Amino acid sequence: MEVIDLRSDTVTRPTAAMRRVIADAEVGDDVFGDDPTVRALEERVAELVGKEAALFVPTGTMANQLALRASLRPGDEVMIGANAHVWRNESGALAALAGAQTRVLPGDGRFDAPAVRANFVPDEPYGSPTRVVAIENTHNASGGTVWDPVAIAEVVAVTHELGMKAHLDGARIWNAAIASGKTEKELAAGFDTVSVCLSKGLGAPAGSLVCSTRETIKLCHRFRKMYGGGMRQTGLLAAAGLHALEHHRARLGDDHANARFLAETLGAASGIRCDAAKVQTNIVNLEFESVDASTVVTYAAGRGVKLLGVGRRMRLVTHLDVDRAACARAAEVIAEAARA
Ligand SMILES: Cc1ncc(COP(=O)(O)O)c(C=O)c1O
After folding, report:
1. Of 61, 203, 276, 320, whose CA is between 20 and 30 Å from 171?
2. DSSP E strands: which ranges in the chain?
3. Distance, CA 131 to ligand 1 centroid (Å)?
4. Buried b vs exposed e over 137-154: b needs ≥16 C-beta within 10 Å?
């Protein structure tokens, strides 16, 4: 039975073509700085997001945390949107490794310039000064939502006006670019630091990059070593990343269309609440009216469909390894389980 896995866009397996470029990659010892494929990837990504330099790191978590660590001092505050990945899903790294506290703005993960101004804490001896404003585009927990480019520009402008740094968690910036019709460079404009991931929608097996000025990247490089992220012949992974950027970026629109198809199909099924109008990229959030997600997960697992859910809620993510037919089959199984 073919397994359909909608748990995340991180579950993709390298394609045959990607495995070939991995096998053929020219490599060196990246800790000594002489892996040519890593250098090529760093240059390519820096160019794509419009920053001076980029640093290859194992994970999106490390990319975010290096960027934030480079901009923060212990006791500083970071302003973020509700359920930001840097706060909710990075094992407390902001507190543990940067010594920072967080100010979480309410809403769906997006916020506006007046909210930044209203929540800013100045640098006074008794307070915890807000040093960084971090946004997430697309926003994972709220269902792959895309920031309005005008709102981003306003938030970045007020962030700088107040003397703070702006960080973009762009793990899925590629999806945001396709959905908003902007380039990655346009979406990253003005940010002091940007993190991007190759192992989500792009389908590489691992790898992320942090992008910034040469000076900040030098600092991130030092923290990468400190955090245990210095890898050796990592050109094998960088080659997969370069291949993914070249071949899997433009097709992300298919994942978005498949996600909308899932949302429309499931939104019309009985016992499921799913608002297709909210689906902007490759993530679908839905809610069951009378069954627990765990029941649906078990039912679907027996039919070759892998799912994730908590309480009555479920998140489905489309990607390179699921086509329209797979989505149709998964929707059928989920609808059956919701009725059962
Ligand atoms: C928005 C966002 N940022 C960062 C990350 C962290 O990536 P990684 O799992 O590679 O640490 C994720 C992972 O899903 C994510 O969704």
Report:
1. 276
2. 4-5, 53-57, 77-81, 101-105, 130-136, 165-170, 193-197, 208-212, 272-273, 283-288, 305-306, 308-310, 313-317
3. 22
4. bbbbbbbbbbbebeebee
Q: Among the atoms of ligand 1, which is closest to the Cα of residue 172?
A: 1
Task: Indicate the Cα dihedral angle 15, 21, 27, 31, nearest 10°.
Answer: -30
pLDDT of 301 > 80? The answer is: yes
Cα 71 to the chain's mean position, in Å?
A: 20
| 80, 98 contact by CB (below 8 A) | no
Half-sphere exposure of 83 (CA within 13 A, CB side): 13
Reported residue count of the chain is: 340
* pLDDT > 80? residue 1: no
Does the predicted model carry a pTM greater than 0.70? yes
Query: What is d(CA 100, CA 69) in angstroms, rounded to the nearest whole number?
Result: 9
Strands (E), 143-216: 165-170, 193-197, 208-212
Cα distances from 246 to residues 34, 56, 171, 198, 243, in angstroms, run: 23, 17, 17, 11, 5
Averaged pLDDT, 284-297: 97
CA–CA separation, 7 and 166 (whole Å): 30
Query: Which tokens is 253 given?
Result: 């629109």
